[in-house]
Amino acid sequence: MDQLISSNVRETLEKVSASLGCSPTSAQVASYLDEHDYLRHLRDEFLIPKIADLPCTDLSLVDGSEESIYLIGNSLGLQPKMTRKYVEEELDKWAKMGVHGHISGSRPWAWAEDNLEERMANVVGAKTDEVALMNGLTVNLHLLMLSFYKPTAKRHKILLEDKAFPSDHYAVESQIRLRGFDPQQSMLLLSPRPGEETLRTEDILELIKKEGDAIAVVMFSGVQYYTGQLFDLAAITEAGQRKGCYVGFDCAHAAGNVELKLHDWGVDFACWCSYKYLNSGAGGIAGAFVHEKHDNTIKPALLGWWGHDLKTRFKMNNVLELQPGVKGFRLCNQPVLLVCCLQASLEIFEMTGMQALRRKSLLLTGYLEYLIQHYYSEDPTRPLKTHVHIITPSDPQQRGCQLSLSFSIPIRKVYEQLQKRGVACDMREPSVLRIAPTPLYNTFSDIYRFVETLGSALASH
């Protein structure tokens, strides 16, 4: 597969199709790429829903025994096969030994999450001591901002993208109000240029340079949930810190999707959920990062006993021995069943690495882009044909595995037809489908089948 991936996916596809004696849009190309995919065995680690088991399927249109076309890992990742085993192990332990499960077995409940933090750190490019597994994403964002957002009369603004994920927007707004400031004055929202859908890196950096003396925190997403744009985290971090700002990221759509180097980039703080590309199940335990440079300077504003040093935590003398860095932000013991779910997924990530996953992702997403452009680019000679505009950046370095497809027609009925045919994807009205080919378990044949099924859905519209 390494030899197949070039900076130009079009050249790769044309080279493969020429060797096969077929068109680049042929199913033979997808089959060839799957056969030469050195990560193809990872799909076997997941449970792929059958078409018949999806709630909206019309079995008069499709074969229900086939695997569904699951392209919505940006919303909820698939279940690893080991998840059930690990959860049942802990239920069995609870049944047989009760409270003794806190300190017994292969996954003692009292420190179960500690065993996963090195694996999690490898996924996000951090040191183990810089990562904590705890809570949910927005809870962690609040806990981190309580410590990193220190507004003054002169430096009180928080910079974020204009259409940040709603939870981020609400968290920032409430943090500003909590400190006695007005969100209308303290929320600095950056929008794309008129007529454009994504932010230009130079515009982000220019605004930081211009407004930086008034900005307390730069708080961006790693990958923008709607457009799929991957921000230049290293450049944003450097620009913000040069102006004296703390820089943090919501990596919900980046963790497990793209290569992150939170430590090397010097990011101040970050948080992420684990149920999207990290496949831990709905409401799975979330992650938080605080760079080690803050171990002795940034303290949690809210305290709980799980932030106490494990060696003396159970002496219960109410004299806090706070763990340094992000570990001190823990408040309470973690739900062990959620730890089990995340363990099952992180073990699969250990079978490969983010660099290898990213290489496959570039070709997988590029293949989707190629087929969409081939069949659905706007053609002035055929004005009545439905066309699709990809609002995600065309530069592979500015996107993860998600492509956001904007249709020239209202999307709901097309989306419903896709669902009837066993496609799981995401709709944003009035006209956008978010399609996320996930390299851990999606195949090139999935992409081919999706584009073929999209044609059927549009024909029935």
UniProtKB/TrEMBL annotation:
It catalyses: 3-hydroxy-L-kynurenine + H2O = 3-hydroxyanthranilate + L-alanine + H(+); L-kynurenine + H2O = anthranilate + L-alanine + H(+). Pyridoxal 5'-phosphate binds at residues 137-138, 165-168, 221, 250, 253, 275, 305, 333. Keywords: Acetylation, Cytoplasm, Hydrolase, Pyridine nucleotide biosynthesis, Pyridoxal phosphate. The modification N6-(pyridoxal phosphate)lysine is found at residue 276. Its cofactor is pyridoxal 5'-phosphate. Pfam families: KYNU_C. Its EC number is 3.7.1.3. Pathway: Cofactor biosynthesis; NAD(+) biosynthesis; quinolinate from L-kynurenine: step 2/3; Amino-acid degradation; L-kynurenine degradation; L-alanine and anthranilate from L-kynurenine: step 1/1. One of its GO terms (cellular component) is cytoplasm. It is found in: Cytoplasm. Signal peptide: none annotated. Belongs to the kynureninase family. Catalyzes the cleavage of L-kynurenine (L-Kyn) and L-3-hydroxykynurenine (L-3OHKyn) into anthranilic acid (AA) and 3-hydroxyanthranilic acid (3-OHAA), respectively. Has a preference for the L-3-hydroxy form. Also has cysteine-conjugate-beta-lyase activity. Homodimer. This is Kynureninase. It comes from Solea senegalensis. The gene is KYNU.
